[in-house]
Amino acid sequence: TQLLEQSPQFLSIQEGENLTVYCNSSSVFSSLQWYRQEPGEGPVLLVTVVTGGEVKKLKRLTFQFGDARKDSSLHITAAQPGDTGLYLCAGPNTGNQFYFGTGTSLTVIP
Amino acid sequence: SAVISQKPSRDICQRGTSLTIQCQVDSQVTMMFWYRQQPGQSLTLIATANQGSEATYESGFVIDKFPISRPNLTFSTLTVSNMSPEDSSIYLCSVGTATNQPQHFGDGTRLSIL
């Protein structure tokens, strides 16, 4: 059983479009992280959200933590080919085990 | 953040052989972890490498198959033993300050078994 389910699993969009990736769980997390992984490289930490309802922005990326701390979303505005990669949410649950989400593979077509 | 170097970056091996992957960090770190990842998929934790003691393995992974060493706070190795084609995967080393804190990753080792 996957503790963190991401949707969609695959996403292919044209440059300039907007998109949202979701990370959902039935468990409460003290924090959630978002990583991006490009081919041939390890995941790179993008952001950590800690407070329920928190919104963080990183240039064209907007991250939100759900009020109940069970879910998170990543919104990309005006996607660019450089945004292509595998997006992973992750976090510790109340049992202090660290889980990674199922992943969303994004392709931005020039 | 810490700079993590993994060697080799990729290898092609014959079934039945073993390969040792090295993970070197440029600073002392509390926690080191080893993950397996199928291309395009999420990460599965193999074990936590403990300095000076036996690694802590996750369900489905055993020491005989994936022996791990961690002789100091900057270095760890993962050996994939008696390899079969099912072991073809990307193996990643990561570091963190605690088990429940964000982690930083090396670039991984892409392993193919013929």
Mean pLDDT of chain A: 93
The oligomeric state of the chains shown is: heterodimer
Helix content of chain B: under 10%
Secondary-structure element order of chain A, as H and E?
EEEEEEEEEEE
- Mean pLDDT of chain B equals 93
**Helix and strand succession of chain B?**
EEEEEEEEEEE
The helix fraction of chain A, in percent, is under 10%
Strand content of chain A: over 45%
* Strands of chain B, total number: 11
Compute the CA-based radius of gyration of chain A.
Answer: 13 Å
Distance between the termini of chain A: 36 Å
- How many individual helices of chain B? 0
* Biggest interface and residues each: A-B, 21 and 20 residues
Explain the layout of strands and helices.
The complex is a heterodimer of chains A (110) and B (114).
Chain A: E1 5-7, E2 10-14, E3 19-24, E4 32-37, E5 44-49, E6 55-58, E7 61-65, E8 71-76, E9 85-92, E10 98-100, E11 104-109
Parallel strand pairs in A: 2-11
Antiparallel strand pairs in A: 1-3, 3-8, 4-5, 4-9, 6-7, 7-8, 9-10, 9-11
Chain B: E1 4-7, E2 10-13, E3 19-25, E4 31-37, E5 43-49, E6 56-57, E7 68-72, E8 75-80, E9 89-96, E10 104-105, E11 109-113
Parallel strand pairs in B: 2-11
Antiparallel strand pairs in B: 1-3, 3-8, 4-5, 4-9, 5-6, 7-8, 9-10, 9-11
